[in-house]
UniProtKB/TrEMBL annotation:
Keywords from the named record: Metal-binding, Zinc
Upper lineage: Bacteria, Bacillati, Chloroflexota, Ktedonobacteria, Ktedonobacterales
Residue sites binding Zn(2+) 2 per the record: 102, 132
Organism expressing this protein natively: Dictyobacter aurantiacus
Keyword Calcium: no
A Gene Ontology molecular function term of the record: zinc ion binding
Gene3D superfamilies recorded: Aldolase class I
GO BP terms in the entry: carbohydrate metabolic process
Protein name listed in UniProt: Tagatose-bisphosphate aldolase
Coiled-coil residues: none
Cofactor note: Binds 2 Zn(2+) ions per subunit. One is catalytic and the other provides a structural contribution.
Amino acid sequence: MLAKTLELVTEARQHGVAVGAFNTYSLELTQAILGAAEQLKQPAILQLGVASVKTGGEPLVKATVLAAQNASVPVAVHLDHCADLDMIERCLAWGCASALADGSHLSFEENILLTRQAAALASSYGATIEAELGYLAGTEDGVTIEAIKASLTHPEQARTFVEATGASMLAVAIGNVHGFTPNPPPLDFELLSQIASQVDVPLILHGASGLGKESIQHAISLGVAKINVNTEVRTAFLTAIAAWGQRVGPTPDVRRRGQDWLDLMREATAAARAVVTEHMQT
Ligand code: 13P
Ligand code: ZN
Ligand code: NA
């Protein structure tokens, strides 16, 4: 059943847990995420990235919303990391319950302006905005500890920011990074508790791929109520496709009437679903 992001996140927080937010790129990944959620009888958030929305447009967004609607558990659809108000509005009109208005690379004042406009827009759709203050360092070589530190969320600024924007959820930068890093730097839990003491809205943790269960649980205990996972799930899907290609070879067997396609997608979907299940059990 179709749910609102903020309701899922608020309810999770009240129960001292977090809701898993997984990026999807296709119907198969959507099925992987929903299959895991339904089996575990847990709510979930399906997230679409800007590049996917640019490529898939209205059909992708509406198909994702329809899949959420048909699920046996509450599922919300969310637009991830978007700095484009027009795209945010299109996605809300197509059924997304929320968007991350990502002004994290803007100046503090410009970030406030973007986020405030997005929040006003969202409320006219009965939707809500996740905002981001501070930004996540990439995983490219050359990212220094100083660069990571300079980009962390500042607790008092976070309070001013949330009050000035009307954002309903806040993504924090506490040393978390996007992508899979085998030995990620430890999260700054002291900073997270300072942010939590300044800000009333639920906190969101991005970059959960590569983070250990203990780190994720610690973050949840300090007020994080939405955990974003992308790379690990996508990698499982793509790795299964690559393995299948190695095994089966590049030539489709025309006599199999599409069975090869279905076999491949079934294997890749199962691999992605296993990763989602593991995260949902954290
Ligand atoms: P990972 O790719 O590290 O899981 O990050 C996901 C994310 O933050 C999506 O917004
Ligand atoms: Zn993110
Ligand atoms: Na990560």
